[in-house]
Amino acid sequence: MYTVRFYKGDYFDRQQQANADGCAAYAEHHFNSSENTAAGYAVVIVGSNASQTSRNWGRWYAAAVAREFGIPVGGDAGILVGGYNGRGDGNLRHTSMPAVLLEPLFASNPQHAAWIRSDDGQSRLARILSESVQRFFQSGGLIGFSVGHKYKASSPNDRGAPVLGGGTEADFAEKVLQKAKVMIEAAEAVGAGRTIRVMHGDTLLWAGSADEDADVTLDPVRGLLRIAGAAPVVTRIGGAAPAARRRRTAGR
Predict the structure, then answer these.
(1) Using N-to-C axis directions, what is the helix angle for 110-117 and 119-136, rounded to 10°?
(2) Mind listing the pLDDT tens digit for each residue in 15-47?
(3) CA 158, CA 45: separation in Å to the nearest integer?
(4) Residue 200 CA to chain centroid, in angstroms?
(5) How confident is the model at residue 234 (pLDDT cuts 50, 70, 90)?
(6) CA 84 – CA 115 distance, rounded (Å)
(7) Residue 24 CB neighbour total at 10 angstroms
């Protein structure tokens, strides 16, 4: 249903290659940085000529990252149209398909840097990107990926901002995109109805399709996820079922 291709060269050349290949969507991955180490929010740049699909995609992705990591969104409800005073606009403006430049976390923020450098943090970002592609491009097709700062013909040694604790922006961005590629290419066809998933870390424990209008609530005291209305259709269950708990009786 989906295939993913990485594009290299200067940013204009990458976009021209993606256009020639007929990509359905194009995503370039960066990490943010600031002299203020407390700065930390999720934001997505879209081109100055961005379509509504690009804007919606960017806002959905930024909001999903914000919820996942407990951080705010930046820009205009998660997006910056035309980039930071124009910076980033040229990375996207020449595409003929929806395109986004991702800035999910800050390499200069100690907590964000720990997420960026961890396998778990990279997987969480990759899954959000994968889910965003499946949500906005349900017909499948070729998805173009670009590693920000890396593989530029005009500046081959560029790796972007340093990440606190070691490493560079571009190298970790590439790791996220490589994980996202695996997830996207393994994605199943989009089914009818609303998909509900239960995850443990990066492991899918349960998935089902429920009515679009169904209320989904979590009772944290009882540990109960309740889906109102008709019983959902289970699409996949992963992992072994948990062993039955033995009843413990006080005083015996």
Answers:
(1) 80
(2) 999 999 999 999 999 999 999 999 999 999 999
(3) 20
(4) 17
(5) low
(6) 24
(7) 19
Closest CA to 10 of 22, 31, 28: 28
Tokens at 239, concatenated: 């992992």
Distance CA(191)–CA(154), nearest Å, equals 44
pTM above 0.90, yes or no: no
Per-domain boundaries in the chain: 2-185, 194-237
At residue 45, what are phi and psi to the nearest 5 degrees? -90, 135
DSSP 45-108: EE-TT--HHHHHHHHHHHHHHHHHHT--B-TBTTEEETEETTEEGGGTTT-SS-EEEEE-SBTT
Distance, in Å, from the CA atom of 132 to the CA atom of 244, rounded to the nearest integer, reads: 36
**pLDDT range class, residue 198, cuts 50, 70, 90:** confident
pLDDT at 240: 44
pLDDT tops 80 at residue 243 = no
% helix / strand / coil in the chain, to the nearest 5?
30, 25, 45
Contacts of 239-248 with CB under 8 Å at 24 or more apart are 239/200, 239/203, 239/205
Identify the residue with better confidence: 56 or 195: 56
How is domain 2-185 classified at the CATH fold level?
A: Aminopeptidase (3.40.630)
Position 116, amino acid: I
Structure tokens that stand for 140 in this block: 């499948």
pLDDT number for residue 89: 98
